[in-house]
Amino acid sequence: MNAPVDAASEPYGLDRRRVVQVIAVRGADEGWRGSGYQVTWNLVLTAAHVVCTATTVQVRFLTAGRGTREVYGKPVWTNPASDIALIRLADDSIAGGPAAAEVPRVRFARIEQPMDCEALGFPRFRLRVDAASPDRGANATYRDSHHARGDTTPLSNHREGTLEITLKSSPEYDPERGRSPWEGMSGAPLWSDGYVIGVITRHHRSDGLGTLAASPVDGWYEHLAPDEINELSSLIGLPTHRDQLERVPRSSLLSDGAPELRESAGRLASRVAAQWRKEERRRNVHDPFPLPVRFRNTGTRLVDHWAKIRDASPGADPGPLALDGSLDQIVTVYRSIPSRRLVVLGAAGSGKTILTLRFVLDWLGDRTPADPVPVIFSLGSWDPTAVSLRDWMCHQLVRDYGLAAPAAHGGNLAAALVDTGWILPVLDGFDEIASGLRGAALKELDRTTTPLLLTSRPEEYAEAVQKQRPLPKAAIVELDDLTLKDIAVYLPLTSSPGADGGLHGTVWEPVLDELHRQRRGPGAENVATALTTPLMVAMARTIYSDASGRDPEELLNTSRFATPEALQKHLLAAFTPVAYEPAPADSGTGRRRRRRWDPGRAQHWLGYLAAHLDQLGRSQAGVPARDLAWWQLGTMMRRSSRMLVIGFLAALALGVTTAVGNVPADLVATSHGLEFALVRGLVVGLLHGLVNGLLFGFVYGSASRGAAEPARVRVQLFGRTRGMRSRFLPRFRLGFTYGVLAALVILFLDRVVVASMGLADGLDGGLAGALVFVPGIGLGVGLVLGLMAWLEVPLDIRSGVSSSEVLSQDRRNVALYLLVWAVVFGVGAGFANGLTGTGPVAGPVWGLLIGLAFGIEAAFGGGLAYGLSFTAWGQWVALARIWLPLTGKLPWRLIAFLDDACERDVLRQTGAVYQFRHAQLQDHLTQVFLAGRDQRPADSEPVT
User: Fold this and answer.
1) Which residues form the NACHT domain (predicted)?
2) Do both 449 and 554 map to the same domain?
3) Domain presence at residue 489
């Protein structure tokens, strides 16, 4: 059959291509008619009384044209008490039809107040005569579709337990006494706000033609046994507990928000979804299937009052919610919590990060334009004593998603989205906050009742809560360990099949046989204990399934791995070398060839990066940092070393250009020979370079306590804001001050030191030249800095946020700095020379040459030195692209190495920064790197 639903189906709400007419044949009976809806690729939801005792069932789909398409099926699940049933479409009918992913899952809800509703079905009063019938003796008839729209309320029909539907339009009269015109409408799902809230089952004729009744979804739980609910949940995704149903109308402060914020939130949602889908593909989460991460309600000692969590009326004690579930139910469970605050506890490697990733993707998959956007924030970089949660989140949004553009009502876009509730914080890693700061972090979280999802290890969270009080209005679930059944099903499918193409004979069979023995040996016990977390199972998969020539049976060797901890350490140690082993595809001729890195060198570089994060974090918060930012890579060097590198490059930039520029000037404008020009050029270059190096090195050392972050700005001639223009004068004053000081020092060197060496060339312009030179340099530097402040505007959300894109934007900014320095000083020097008219050579040609020489010197000596000292790209070039590769700490093609590490699942990328795939892997690499050093190098002392 051709698919009644295709990939273009709407993922949210009623879709006419999934509406069906149901014809149930009962023996000699001509057939009972009803309506239904395709809820999965092979299941149709309808009313039980339509299909009960049916011998065959015919299902008619609406087609893209004006016809129908008929398929056959049979009832496979019925419940007369709730009056709902499922029809399974015949296998031969659905062959070649849509895959499961092409039929979005229906979402179920309950209403709590009068709501608009709609249903699409085939009632009897829609009976029509087919004018195109070829049979002239008896015209063929058909039932057309009817889109019923109206209002429903949970208060009517209380004793019957149905929803009353008051229709906006209905038949004007009853065409046939004794039969309802609404016959055939039974089985049509009732929709509200994009959710199924019931199934139409009855028409009470005494209520009139404008009223129908529906079996409410929340009422099904009263009629179904627990095993029936579980079966229905597995078949069509019905939540396993009534409390997990979404409530409509959904409370949202966002639906009437500013259109620009709604639009920005939509763009952010697309970016977040793309980011984490890419990460999910890299991790092979769905190959062969996601590991079954499960969670359950945790102990009550950490949980706030359920009455507060459930927003109960004063004095009521509603009891706990049923929050047990699996990974694919996390959004449903979260939505069932009225306070929208959930804490997820789990041991290291238990799947907290995968759960947050699944939560974000599933939420965004079902997101409506009025829903907030879930964003994952890694809490390890937050210092709650220095910055509020709100300000920290705003900073992270600017850093990772480029939300620095001004908002309509002041502030930037990040702050506007946070303040208006468009951001749903997914706070990952409460345990990664320094132990001395967790109490302050919990107090900061305590001050707000904003919706959130928080993850932590149990011990760290319990310690913080016991010293204060539970997080207000937050429910708590705890992740379970993987079971033997979980890994016995998963691991064989990750490896090559056995000789018969089945699950027997895989490399994992000997290990699993040992694990299934009634009396396990010590080695099997170690393996069973070690492989209880998704992290360790993933490590084992990479080492023994994805790589060739390795036998997992060695894991049972107790002489090598005496304890589960030793086994886990082995998996962590073997993971990185295996990840960098050359694969056969690496040397092939495919379209994408993975870059090859020496495994030993790669491990050394990763160890350096891990140690850098460890040192960076401990110097700031006492715990290892987790965000690997390219602009911070030079901070592992002590400040004095960084000052020397920056100062040397700044001196080189101005010294070389000055030396080279003085030689032709002396040859053209003086009578001195080549030897004089060369000697004077070398001396002046050395002195000017020394001044420039000392100046920029000192300014860098005094102004920098860490690394400069990338400037989230670009140059724009029009559309600048008043706030940006107001920065012109402060930057101008700063530039003028430093420019005058530098000019005085250079004037002293040229007029005193160089002249005392007999190298004066007579081109200094005398007193007039000095009076123009000093303020001219000050005005030039001030004008450059002021102009750049005036021309810069923040990047908006549509700009790139990946590391390479941010790096490219910062590099373009530095190139524009060089151009502005060259233009300002070139024009200024040429104009000043024209005014003074000094020197043996004068005139417009000489002024043009002077302007060109000054412009080049200013571009390299000022612009490049400024970029090296005060921009993230400049410091990146000086430290991470030149010095650290020269010393062997990092590879020359660092960004390519980091991106490749993401492809190998050693790192992951979140916004503009990288992270190791798990804190345990980062900590292991740190220990290996530090243990492998004979002594601490001088350039890796703690940052001061």
Assistant:
1) 340-458
2) no
3) yes
